[in-house]
Amino acid sequence: MEKLVRLITMAPLFLQMLLVSFPFAFAGHDYGQALTKGILFFEAQRSGYLPSNQRVKWRADSGLHDGKASGVDLVGGYYDAGDNVKFGLPMAFTITMMSWSIVEYGKQMAANGELGHAMEAVKWGTDYLIKAHPHPYVLYGEVGDGNTDHFCWQRPEDMTTDRRAYKIDPSNPGSDLAGETAAAMAAASIVFRRSNPSYANELLTHAQQLFEFGDKYRGKYDSSITVAQKYYRSYSGYADELLWAAAWLYQATNNQHYLSYLGNNGQSLGGTGWSMTEFGWDAKYAGVQVLVAKMLMQGKGGRYASVFQQYQQKAEFFMCSCLGKGTKNIQKTPGGLLYRQPWNNMQFVTSASFLVTVYSDYLASAGKNLNCAAGSVSPSGLISFAKSQVI
Q1: pLDDT tens across 196-246, in order?
Q2: In whole angstroms, what is the distance from residue 165 CA to residue 70 CA?
Q3: By CB neighbour count within 10 A (0-12 exposed, 13-18 middle, 19+ buried), where does 299 fall?
Q4: pLDDT tens for residues 326-362?
Q5: Contact predicate 156/196, CB 8 Å
Q6: Which candidate, 289, 137, 125, 290, places its Cα nearest to that of 211?
Q7: What is d(CA 46, CA 63) in angstroms, rounded to the nearest whole number?
Q8: How far is 315 from 286, CA to CA, in rounded Å?
Q9: H runs (alpha helix) in the chain
C-alpha cells in the first residue's frame, strides 16, 4: 500500500517538473498539454478551503480542523497522494522543485499560459509552510498518520482518521526537514520577488530562520517524527539538506554568508565527497552540486573556487553516469530508460532528466562542454539525452 501510494504521487510530481524544461512540442508530442495536466494534478491534491477558481470541481473543502488540537492552524497544503496525509519533507521538496522550474523556465510556461497556475501551485504550498512554522525553532512536519490513514480509503472531504500534528523543535530536531523547508521558502521567494515583493520577503525570513534552526539543532527528522519512518525515512541524513538550503538562500539573497557556508562545509557535510547516481526527495546532493557548479561557472566562487570545483566534479560525475559515459554508470532498460530501482523508478528518471536539462543550460551559458571519461558531450547532447527519457 505504501509503495503504491508513493508511486502515485512521485511520478506525476517529477514528470511535471521535467515537462517545463523542454520546448512545448516536438516530434508530435504536445508537452504544453502535459504541462497543463501536470499542474492540474496539484489542484486535485489541495487540502483546506478551496478557492473560487478551483478547476478540479469534484474536490471540496477538507482538513478544516488540521492543527486545532495542537493550537495551531495547519489548514491547507497538499495531500501526499491517494491518501490524506500531509508529509512535510516531500511536500517541501515539491515546492522547491516547482519553484526551480519557474525560475529556469517561467518564460516558456508563460508562453503556454501556465505560469499563473504554476505560481498559484507554489503559493498554495508556501502558504501552508508559513503556517507550519509558527516559531523560529518550531516546524510542523506531518499532519495525519499513514499507519491509520492507509487502513481506511476515504475521500478527504469525508475522512474520519486521526489528524494529529507532529513537529520538530530544539528538543526533537529535524535538520533535514528544516533544511528542505528553508530551501522551498528561499526558492519560492525568487519566484515572487517581482510580482509580490512583500510575500517574497516573508518567505525569505522564514527560510533564514529555518536554516538557522536546522543548522543549530541537528538531527534527523524521522527520529523525532517517528510515524514518518515507514513512508519517508531520511536515508541520506540531514547534511545534504543543509547544503541545499544554503545554496538556495544564496540564490535568493546573494548573501556571502551562505556562499561561505557552502565553501566551508563542503567536505564535512559531503557536498564535495558524495558521487551521486540519484536525485530526489531524500537525496539532494546532486542538486546542490549542480547549483554550486552554476555559481562557479558564473564566476562567483571567489576564494572558494577550488572547493566549488570539487562540487562541480561531482555534478559532472552525475551527468556522465546518466549518459552512460562515466566511470560508474546508471543502469538502463533495454529501451534506454534510466533504471534506478524496481518500483517508483520514474521519480529518478524525471528528476535526473531535469538536472541534466538545467545543467545543459548552465554549460551553454558558460560556453562549455561536459567532459566524461568516454568523451566530451555538448549542451545539445545533454538535451538530446533528456528528451530520450520522455519520448
Answers
A1: 999 999 999 999 999 999 999 999 999 999 999 999 999 999 999 999 999
A2: 7
A3: exposed
A4: 999 999 999 999 999 888 898 899 999 999 999 999 9
A5: no
A6: 137
A7: 10
A8: 6
A9: 2-19, 31-44, 88-111, 115-131, 146-149, 175-191, 197-216, 221-224, 229-232, 239-253, 256-265, 285-297, 305-323, 346-366, 379-388
The length of the chain in residues reads 391
**CB crowding 136-166: b at 16 or more within 10 Å, else e:** ebebbbbbbbbeebbeeeeebeebebebebb
pTM for this model (two decimals): 0.94
The answer to whether 36 and 55 have CB atoms below 8 angstroms apart is no
Query: Which strands form 165-168's sheet, in the order they lie side by side?
Result: 86-87, 139-143, 165-168
DSSP string, 238-252: SHHHHHHHHHHHHHH
Write the CB contacts of 257 (distance below 8 Å, at least 6 apart in sequence): none
* Residue 278 amino acid letter: E
CA distance 205 to 129: 12
The answer to whether residues 255 and 249 touch, using CB atoms and an 8 Å cutoff, is yes
